[in-house]
What we know:
Rossmann fold; binds zinc ion; 17% strand; alpha/beta; seven-stranded mixed sheet; 7 helices
Amino acid sequence: MTIDTILPTPDLFAARRILCIQPHYDDNDIGAAGILAQLARNGVEILYLTVSDDLMGVVDTSLSDRAAAEALRRDQLAAGKLVGVKEQIWLGYPDAGEYNYFDVRRDLLQHIRRIQPDFVFTCDPWLTYEGHRDHVQTGLAAAEAVMFAGITKIPSGDPAVDATYRGHINGIAFYYTREPNVIADITAAWQTKQAVVRCYQAQFDPAGLDELVFGLDVKSRQVAQGKDFEHGEALKVLHPIALHCGI
Ligand SMILES: [Zn+2]
């Protein structure tokens, strides 16, 4: 049994500008391309921020780092076009490598204060058995940056951005979660989601992409069980205040 927060679940469909913070190039899309494509179609501004350079996941190991980075960006821009992403931001921390958590959090604070989203998407850092440190660090840094966005005494590295921030974040949505409180109906966007994840050719060979789409198909049907739609995406949507001390 889980006990829900006493705060109401923020309304995702009231969002106007969403910043989606991911550890690797494909996580936002694997986790939430269906709902994000639908929101973009409704006129919501969608921006993606990628924390790592993702170079470890490239299947063609004969590529130079430069060529691999170009292939990853080509794939991500193609996928972003299908979703309707307005802007892509890359922080370039070393994939599966050594970097400082507080540097990431500082960079996220800066982008959040500059962009002023009213909703943030990221991966759930408390996913049971998540073994990839990039995922844990990114999700936690994003959650802290959402909580601390308005506390401008915590510096973002850009004093001008800190001095002028007047934004307000209504909610945070975690994908890759085992404790969802929102199952988004993505049936109308299911074909788009498949096409989006199939853009990631630098990271998956054709068989790997087939396997990924098959897995997403099964999962999306599983989370929609008992609902009146066929394909769903599972999200934990919280008010920023609910991110601290279990309120
Ligand atoms: Zn990832």
